[in-house]
Amino acid sequence: MATIQDVAKAAKVSVATVSRVLNNSPSVSEKKQQVVMRAIQELNYQPNLLGRNLRRTETKMILVLVPTIFNTFYAKVVKGIEDIGNENGYNVMLCNTYAEKNREQVFLKQLKNRLVDGIIFMATGLSKEALNEINQHFPIVQCCEYIKGANLSRISIDNYAAAYKAVTHLIRQGRKRIAMISSLNKLASTVEREAGYKKALENAGIAIEPDIILPGDYGFKSGLRAARQLLTKEFNIDGIFAISDMMAIGAMKTIKENGLSVPEDIAVVGFDDIRYTSMCEPQLTTISQPQYDLGCGAMTLLLKRIQNEKADIEHIVLEHELMIRGSTVI
Amino acid sequence: MATIQDVAKAAKVSVATVSRVLNNSPSVSEKKQQVVMRAIQELNYQPNLLGRNLRRTETKMILVLVPTIFNTFYAKVVKGIEDIGNENGYNVMLCNTYAEKNREQVFLKQLKNRLVDGIIFMATGLSKEALNEINQHFPIVQCCEYIKGANLSRISIDNYAAAYKAVTHLIRQGRKRIAMISSLNKLASTVEREAGYKKALENAGIAIEPDIILPGDYGFKSGLRAARQLLTKEFNIDGIFAISDMMAIGAMKTIKENGLSVPEDIAVVGFDDIRYTSMCEPQLTTISQPQYDLGCGAMTLLLKRIQNEKADIEHIVLEHELMIRGSTVI
DNA sequence: TTGTATGCGTTATCAC
DNA sequence: GTGATAACGCATACAA
């Protein structure tokens, strides 16, 4: 494997000159330029960027930590991150954490060990104290999901307002006994969505019943399960608000299997507007997040942080949209 | 940011000793060990792995190139790759190529520039000549999709046999006019699946009609579109074999929208057994690939290649399974 | 414009 | 068991 030394020798110049050619410095004669280029070609030389990175103390690589790519919600967000990253000369790589703390630590180590220049968290199990500590020394940013109170830049939608809007929509459709399929986790999004749900009921003069707020894990099966519970017992619900589309789709399946129909008997609203919302029958009413823009924004925030350690901490909130489809409107 | 030098100074030992502690070499006294550890703690020292990697000419990072994480088929494969990789001390990162050649080149550059130790291709736009050239100098492996004739290790199922089995199943269910939703690409899998489809028809004495072999792009919408074509014209089909589940699900939707029913009027078979196959109505009959094992196998092959440049080239074929569900059986 | 020499942060090879 | 010190491959301040 040829090194810069070999090229220098072959071109009969110093390594400095070769380096200059590689980084196309203006101060190198046309002639030497050519000679060096030829040598590079002939030796099939590939610069070892480990050397360069060590020297420059940067790698131009950034990591995106996502719980799991099984959740297609992240795909568009990642595209936004990639596009802005690439425009600025950064390579973006994805890492699955599977919501496991030690896996998160492994990738965090890559940051601390200077193997990557920054990390975007799509969700994290770290405490706000831990995040603050890391952010003091290394560039990190939160995207979509975030830990409340952590003192670092983030971008997301207003989950409270979104849930409020979704539930109010159900109420306007005449629904009065609206269940929620939520989660046991303490993510900011969960807390805010529950708060928005409750506020909407309260504003409409509907009593909140803890019994019809069930936990799920965002997945299809947990939607099936939750709906089954809601139907077996005598809750007599006529609406469901789920904090993920997959759970909403699972709930619809259970409802139909029980001989009831959506939206006539029970209207259903999901969250995220993943692709499958328009594939199911009926199509799912849901909250659409501006995924691509969230990604772009996150990368922009990270770049600011990388370029300027003392960059202002920003909390950006993007607009969401209620996509009204067949699952709530007869 | 503290370096190994700082630690050495603080602990009043040489950098060599610190390095030994870091790599827990046995030949270092209990006492010094402790002193060094304390210094590391106090300085909050994080080794800069760029230095280590430069020295060792390895990074313990490997890249998985996937066309797009929008396709959930890859999720389980990636899990297999990660598990075997992690067991062996490697960090696995995902890169989206979006089937764009230049994006593929960018990540390939990371390999050539020694920023990563190897690459697993889940699909590639490179020619077999290009792949052979790369494989001569750097560890690469193909997984699931592959370029025929490329002289490097790969792992996949037998796409020919799988398609043959799927179509034969339709025939056994009494179907006689079976359409195929395929692709215009020239991937080995496509070619082989088409061949298997034709062979099955031929064996059953059914004539092959090029008119009912339509192209798609693996996505839901192209499934909708293809089915629409098949239904408008007077093809009178009673079965569809699609080379992706998403297209099969799209086709089912079109069929139902046209007042026909699955499987009574038209039976449908997909390919891959992604999660959504059991979420749709009726559930989709499909070919299940051993995704996790494919991932494990790919990583194992890559490790062999990394550890021994002259490792034998292997072409591993894993078993597939026809998952018979409601979309083909009344 | 070009070359020399030094340093980036490690690990590894020697001596001792 | 420990410490100097020379690499690893590159970029760059400084001299020329």
Task: Describe this protein's structure.
The structure is a homodimer of 330-residue chains. The first copy, chain A, has helices at residues 4-11, 15-22, 30-43, 49-56, 73-87, 101-112, 128-137, 159-172, 188-203, 220-232, 245-257, 291-307; strands spanning 61-66, 91-96, 118-121, 140-143, 154-157, 178-183, 213-216, 239-242, 267-272, 285-288, 315-318, 321-323. The termini of chain A are far apart. Chain A has 330 residues and is of the alpha/beta class. Chain A has three domains: 4-45, 434 Repressor (Amino-terminal Domain) (Orthogonal Bundle); 59-157 and 292-319, Rossmann fold (3-Layer(aba) Sandwich), CATH 3.40.50.2300; 159-290, Rossmann fold (3-Layer(aba) Sandwich), CATH 3.40.50. The radius of gyration of chain A is 26 Å and the shape is elongated. The first copy, chain A, is 45% helix and 17% strand. In chain A, helix 1 (4-11) crosses helix 2 (15-22) and helix 10 (220-232) crosses helix 11. Chains A and B meet through helix 4, helix 5, strand 2, helix 6 and helix 11 of A and helix 4, helix 5, strand 2, helix 6 and helix 11 of B. Chain A binds a DNA duplex (16 and 16 nucleotides) through helix 2 and helix 4.
